[in-house]
Specification:
Elements (H helix, E strand, L loop, with lengths): L2 H6 L17 H14 L16 E6 L2 H16 L9 E5 L7 H17 L7 E6 L19 E2 L6 E2 H8 L10 E6 L2 E5 L17 E9 H4 L3 E5 L11 E11 L3 H6 L19 E11 H14 L8 H5 L25 H12 L4 E6 L2 E5 L3 H9 L2 H7 L4 E2 L2 E3 L10 H4 L3 E3 L2 E3 L3 E2 L4 E3 L2 E2 L4 E2 L4 E3 L2 E2 L13 E2 L3 E10 L2 E10 L8 E2 L7 E2 L2 E2 H7 L10 E3 L8 E4 L7 E2 L4 H16 L13 E2 L1 H7 L2 H17 L1
Parallel strand pairs: 1-2, 1-3, 3-6, 8-12, 14-16, 15-17, 16-19, 18-21, 19-22, 20-23, 21-24, 22-25
Antiparallel strand pairs: 4-5, 6-11, 7-13, 8-11, 9-10, 9-11, 10-12, 25-26, 27-31, 28-29, 30-31, 32-33
Helix pairs in contact: 3-17, 4-8, 14-15
């Protein structure tokens, strides 16, 4: 299921499981070989077994704090031999100052590599993964980064970084030195066809080469769309073929796609791809040769420091191809922060890249999947049997289940069709609903976990329980729960982030209307009253959408102080569940938060105790490995 389909049918996605395909289908079989090849170098020399692999990997972050978090996790993965041993991985933070977008980050990375490697840089194959950002639509990735989100595959369990390193391996033999640009919250499954077909396609030595995926026309309105040079030469039966691109459109209207010749008709793709009717080729990752790298490097040296947001897809790709025009530089509807020099800078980039060729690799046996939201996470890991088959995903991945009571036979969760459980230690008589994801959890008391939820980084430890059984043994439906270690007054405390799965953390509301903001199935006012929050705090900022009142004081759930601090992970989780019960029930005497220190998501990110969080996961890793 593509992203647009999920957005249109968010209330129905739990009712729409995709039928399981046989394991020997083309994409599933090809991806199985991809992972097999990567496993041969995971924890070993990256060029073992004559493998062709990346010379350098670079991961970008939004700031230096995130850079430090990423580097700690990469070091942990190296120590556990989860990465190729001699693979250079650099983490590069955006400079302090205005938001520069992933295009600006690309320029910063080129300057960094040139400083580190000198002229040697231009002979290397470089994987650049843009992984910065706060992950407001997937808060379990906010503190430690979406590039380290777990994937239910492998032993030890894969994270998104492992998936990215494996995912693009088959392209490398046909790739010259250059930079391959990808993002951290998407998955590509594909089949390149028989090995002998590799002679029909390659990444171009100069200019740009982009991966292009067949998609229904509606999907194109949320993606980049390619105008193919001669649609009569498109053969959907060919797994991959090179094709020249005339123009790139970004999130175009459907009428615009037809007008510009981006829509193709009467093509029949395989059942695996399942694209019927009018379609277009949409974007994912792209590559540029070292001729382009030198141009961009020179541009950055002439124009740094950057003071505006540059998008690698919107500002680089739209300048390419013989039919490109500069009209797009004035379209700012997708820009997060408008600055005075935005349009002039975009125009400079257009002039720099104008006339540069862009070739396409039409990947006719491919699907592009986004997992950057809580709903997508639940859907793909719990219901999408097609993707699970293609990626070899499991429902029970790198866990141990403890026996609290003697029983004749240990029962695995995967045998009962329960939810997706990853990197966790649970009592075997826990109950996890079929459409719920549990990750990085340690429960020493059996809980009943409700439906349509994500439970992440939570613990119920016997030594931390103040009463047995604990006050809550049931986790309600439709919840997001994630416990974070926080530095507070030189001590480590814990906050459990709790939201309803439908809550919109990014949505800005005027401060004057904050009491009506949806939260935990009701509204903020109910939360304040039922939890006796006499000192409810807001972090305000001045904003406003153009035409809707510039300069208004706005806030969001991300900026509201909603999460009380506790001394232990267990107490924090139990308190969060009490808050849910108070907010959703009619008992005003259930809890009094007036004496608690309460923090917002924004404060949690600023004060997170990364070492404490990583220690919890390392200890959990050891516990599972020794079981």
């Amino acid at each position: 299921m593509e992203k647009k389909d999920e957005e249109n049918n968010s209330d129905k996605f739990l009712e729409m499981p995709i039928p399981m395909l046989p394991e020997d289908t083309g994409i599933a079989q090809f991806m199985k070989k991809v992972f097999s090849d990567y496993e041969k170098i995971r924890g070993k020399d990256k060029n073992a077994n004559d493998s062709v692999f990346w010379d350098v990997v670079v991961i970008t972050t939004a700031d230096y704090a995130q850079k430090n978090v990423f580097e700690l996790q990469i070091e942990s993965k190296r120590n556990r031999k989860e990465l190729p041993l001699n693979l250079p991985i650099y983490v590069v933070a955006d400079p302090v100052g205005p938001k520069i977008g992933n295009g600006g980050s690309t320029l910063v990375v080129l300057a960094f590599l040139h400083l580190c490697l000198g002229q040697e840089m231009f002979g290397k194959k470089i994987l650049l993964i843009h992984a910065g950002g706060q992950s407001k639509r997937m808060p379990s990735a906010s503190c430690l980064g979406k590039i380290f989100s777990p994937i239910p595959h492998g032993d030890p369990i894969y994270q998104m970084l492992d998936l990215k390193l494996a995912m693009y391996m088959p392209f490398l033999p046909n790739m010259p030195p250059g930079v391959f640009v990808a993002c951290a919250d998407d998955i590509l499954v594909y089949d390149l066809g028989p090995a002998e077909d590799s002679k029909y396609w390659s990444f171009c030595y100069n200019g740009f080469t982009a991966l292009a995926h067949p998609s229904p026309v509606q999907i194109g309105t949320k993606h980049g769309v390619y105008v193919v040079e001669n649609e009569k030469n498109v053969d959907p039966k060919k797994h991959v073929r090179g094709m020249r691109c005339l123009r790139v459109l970004q999130k175009p209207r459907i009428t615009q796609m037809y007008e510009q010749g981006a829509v193709l008709s009467n093509l029949t793709f395989s059942e695996e791809v399942a694209v019927k009717g009018d379609m277009s080729y949409t974007d994912s990752a792209f590559f540029f040769g070292m001729d382009v790298a030198k141009k961009l490097l020179h541009f950055y040296k002439e124009n740094c420091p950057l003071t505006c947001e540059i998008d690698a897809y919107g500002d680089f790709l739209q300048a390419l191809g013989p039919q490109a025009t500069s009209d797009y530089v004035h379209n700012t509807k997708n820009v997060t922060h408008l600055t005075p020099n935005l349009v002039p800078t975009r125009l400079k980039i257009f002039e720099l890249l104008k006339g540069t060729d862009i070739s396409l690799l039409l990947m006719n046996a491919s699907r592009f999947i986004h997992i950057g939201t809580t709903k997508e996470y639940i859907y793909h890991f719990c219901f999408d049997t097609k993707l699970q088959s293609e990626l070899g995903l499991e429902k029970d991945c790198f866990n141990t289940f403890t026996e609290l009571e003697p029983r004749a036979k240990k029962q695995k969760f995967s045998d009962t069709g329960f939810g997706c459980i990853m990197h966790s230690c649970l009592p075997s008589n826990c109950f996890v609903s079929p459409n719920t994801v549990v990750e990085y959890c340690l429960f020493e008391y059996p809980l009943q976990v409700g439906q349509n939820s994500i439970i992440s980084n939570c613990a119920v430890l016997e030594e931390e329980l103040t009463e047995t059984p604990p006050p809550h043994t049931q986790i309600p439906h439709n919840l997001f729960l994630h416990t974070v270690a926080v530095k507070h007054q030189e001590k480590t405390k814990y906050a459990t982030i709790v939201f309803h799965i439908e809550d919109d953390l990014k949505k800005q509301v005027p401060v004057s209307e904050v009491s009506g903001a949806p939260y935990l199935g009701y509204d903020i006012q109910r939360f304040i009253e039922n939890c006796k929050l006499t000192q409810f705090e807001l972090d305000e900022h001045t904003g406003g959408v153009e035409g809707e009142g510039e300069g208004r004081a706005l806030t969001s759930l991300w900026q509201m102080s909603l999460f009380p601090l506790e001394n232990t992970m267990t107490e924090s989780l139990m308190l969060a569940l009490t808050i849910v019960k108070a907010s959703q029930g009619n008992n005003p005497n259930l809890i009094d938060l007036s004496s608690y220190d309460i923090v917002s998501m924004e404060e949690i990110l600023e004060k997170k105790d990364v070492k404490a969080m990583l220690k919890f996961r390392e200890d959990l890793f050891s516990k599972i490995s020794k079981a």
